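Morning run. Coffee first, then this:
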Amino acid sequence: MASVLIRVCATLPRNFIAFEYTTGDPDWWYDIVEGLPQAIVKDGFVDVIERPGMGVDLVPERARQYLAEDEQMFFD
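And here it is:
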């Protein structure tokens, strides 16, 4: 979702402030996705992610371990 918001904000006029600081929270978020930069904000600026769609890929094999017992069939 961060990628979509970054792309929308990149189209706004320079004097329009619209900012949502999205991070990988909880910490294991970085374990289950690929493509999310560790540092989203650098020197007060956000780089537009150059990947299609939402800019990240969910890795089901890694995400399964974080599913609750009644959610184990989620990726099936």
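Helices lie at 2-10, 29-32, 60-63. Good start to the day.
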